[in-house]
Design a protein that fits this description.
5 strands, 168 residues, two-stranded parallel sheet, 8 helices, mainly alpha, elongated
Length: 168
Amino acid sequence: VELLVGAARRFADRDDVVFVVNGSGSGRAAVAEAAEGLDNLVLVGLQPKERLPEVLAAADVHTVLLRRGLARSSVPSKMYSILAAGRPCVASVDPDTEVERTLRTAGAGVAVGPEDLDAFCAALEPLLDDPAERERLGAAGRRFVEGWASPDAVAASYESLIEELIGR
């Protein structure tokens, strides 16, 4: 989340950009302290699951931020929720990991190396200025999830696997 604090500092002169951090994890106090004086970074407590659709729809761009090494063994479930919500994603993750591959395959966002503020801001800035590109990436992510992770797609995958096993 420190990456968002750095990005908020970089974009502090833009009145059309606000970073919102949802949650109440153990690092919240440190993030609040680091973000002191930034009007464009808002910390919001953990929201009830009933509000998840509203939270996902509220953002123009979402982020997946993982420290170096974590994306090799972790895929945050929020990535699939972001894609299902039809929103683009900028990820700061290790290269050649599931998060990076999914965004590339889906055409739903951009992945940059972990903890690289310059690359993160360079990936984010064009999306801030291009609503049509945000819409295009978001729609691609939604199509990907519908075709890959929807109940119908999962059922078809299982059916195909079972037919293949029976055929052996």
